[in-house]
């Protein structure tokens, strides 16, 4: 998993079966992110000590989330005796692809990392750290979910289970690489603590499929777009992690393709009016979350020479085109009205953030927020209700002749 998906209201639920991250150094501590003492510079110690060496990631609607699901239902869905739509040969082929492990030797660091990190100073430094933290959390979230699915589906469907385990291998690798990047900035995310302390958002399996598919595909488009941009504009290549994005994004693409195959094996999640409504809802949640998040962090995108809104719209349009191959309906994101609505949401969100940062007492802040939240909700609803694009996969002809999209 690579992207963040958060706007959906969570039902907080702690998974009893949360797997342990195998990093033996990841011990529980009092904060998610800690300074690495051996490399802490006096300057950084001074600024950090004010906060008591603690910097906790805020749990907000837009923060990357951890997911849990109904694993019993997952087992039923992937039981080949119950579900005759499971295309074993397709999953076997995907498994071989994952076993090939194209990126086994890809994530190798060199001394350029630390040197580049030391050169990033001023406001960009903080925003870079935040980028690494959020990306690491999102990747790690994928690791936890896939690892658990791999464990739980082992008996019911060993092939699907093994693919999940191999995807968790990829995500652990991605999260680990980003965490090593944080060490260049004298920081480290405490993934062991994160596993235990973060709230888990519960999604039914069907929603896990929509959300993770979109998350993987939007992650692919984000990584490849940044990679291509920096290849053409090497003067903005301020930190070597971006050079790894070309192969890295292929992992995310494969993960997305696997979810596409999973959804095809569950046509009931794709072929009725409810599926169309949910598909649009998840597209909107994912696109809006990314747009609002990124517009709060324009310094990062400008720091690597991108125009934040142009970058985001490119990623949204490409993700939407890819998603239209499998989802039964998608949003008409290429209609200029969609972007106008996103921009209005950004303006409202900025006002909401300004209220939060004001000196007002909490009661007054809440009062001021009411009309803004209502305005944001009405923009969201209007975007959701824009005429959608009917889409979907022709593969359904095999299963349900009346439902060819
Ligand atoms: Fe990933
Ligand atoms: Fe992924």
Helix content: 55-70%
- Segments where pLDDT lies below 50 for 5+ residues? 5-31, 36-57, 396-405
Share of β-strand residues: under 5%
| Largest sheet descriptor | 2 strands, antiparallel
Estimated structural class: mainly alpha
Question: How many E strands?
Answer: 6
Our Rg estimate from Cα atoms comes to 21 Å
Bound molecules: fe (ii) ion
Biggest sheet: strand arrangement: 1-3
Distance linking N and C termini: 28 Å
Helix count from the secondary structure assignment? 14
Counting copies of identical and different chains, the oligomeric state is single chain
Helix-strand string: EHEHHHHHEHEHHHHHEHHE
Average of per-residue pLDDT values: 85
- Shape field: globular
InterPro entries: AcsF, Ferritin-like_SF, Rr_diiron-bd_dom
Protein name: magnesium-protoporphyrin IX monomethyl ester (oxidative) cyclase
Catalytic activity: Mg-protoporphyrin IX 13-monomethyl ester + 3 NADPH + 3 O2 + 2 H(+) = 3,8-divinyl protochlorophyllide a + 3 NADP(+) + 5 H2O
EC number: 1.14.13.81
Map the helices and strands:
Blueprint: E1 33-35, H1 42-49, E2 66-69, H2 71-77, H3 88-100, H4 112-119, H5 123-152, H6 158-184, E3 187-189, H7 191-197, E4 200-203, H8 205-232, H9 245-264, H10 273-295, H11 298-303, H12 308-323, E5 329-330, H13 336-357, H14 362-384, E6 389-390
Parallel strand pairs: 2-4
Antiparallel strand pairs: 1-3, 5-6
Helix pairs in contact: 3-6, 5-6, 6-9, 8-9, 8-10, 8-12, 10-12, 10-13, 13-14
The structure holds fe (ii) ion (FE2) (2 copies).
One fe (ii) ion (FE2) binds at residues 1-2, 142, 171, 216, 251-252, 255.
């Amino acid at each position: 998993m690579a992207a963040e998906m958060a706007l959906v209201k969570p039902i907080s639920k702690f998974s009893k079966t949360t797997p342990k991250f195998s990093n033996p150094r990841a011990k529980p501590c009092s904060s998610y992110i800690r300074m690495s003492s051996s490399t802490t510079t006096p300057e950084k110690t001074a600024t950090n000590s004010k906060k008591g060496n603690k910097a906790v990631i805020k749990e907000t609607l837009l923060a990357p989330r951890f997911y849990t699901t109904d694993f019993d239902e997952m087992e039923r869905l992937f039981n080949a005796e119950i579900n005759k739509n499971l295309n074993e040969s397709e999953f076997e082929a995907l498994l071989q692809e994952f076993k090939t492990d194209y990126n086994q030797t890809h994530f190798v660091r060199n001394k350029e990392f630390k040197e580049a990190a030391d050169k990033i100073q001023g406001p960009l430094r903080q925003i870079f750290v935040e980028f690494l933290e959020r990306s690491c959390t999102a990747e790690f979230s994928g690791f936890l979910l896939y690892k658990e699915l791999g464990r739980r589906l082992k008996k019911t469907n060993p092939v699907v289970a093994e693919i999940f385990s191999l995807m968790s291998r990829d995500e652990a690798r991605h999260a680990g690489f980003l965490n090593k990047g944080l060490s260049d900035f004298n920081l480290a995310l405490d993934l062991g603590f994160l596993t235990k302390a973060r709230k888990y958002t519960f999604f039914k399996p069907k929603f896990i499929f929509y959300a993770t598919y979109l998350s993987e595909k939007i992650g692919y488009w984000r990584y490849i777009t940044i990679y291509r941009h920096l290849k053409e504009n090497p003067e903005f290549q301020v930190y070597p992690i971006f050079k790894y994005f070309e192969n890295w994004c292929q992992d995310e693409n494969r993960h997305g393709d696997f979810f596409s195959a999973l959804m095809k094996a569950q046509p009931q999640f794709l072929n009725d009016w409810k599926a169309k409504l949910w598909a649009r809802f998840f597209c909107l949640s994912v696109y809006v979350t990314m747009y609002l998040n990124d517009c709060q962090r324009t310094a990062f995108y400008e720091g690597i020479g991108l125009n934040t809104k142009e970058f985001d719209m490119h990623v949204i349009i490409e993700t939407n085109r890819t998603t239209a191959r499998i989802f039964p309906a998608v949003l008409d994101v290429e209609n200029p009205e969609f972007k106008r609505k996103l921009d209005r949401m950004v303006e409202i969100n900025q006002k909401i953030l300004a209220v939060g940062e004001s000196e007002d007492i909490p009661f007054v802040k809440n009062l001021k927020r009411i009309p803004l939240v209502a305005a944001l909700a009405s923009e969201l609803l209007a975007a959701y209700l824009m005429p959608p694009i009917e889409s979907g996969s022709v593969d359904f002809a095999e299963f349900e002749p009346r439902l060819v999209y």
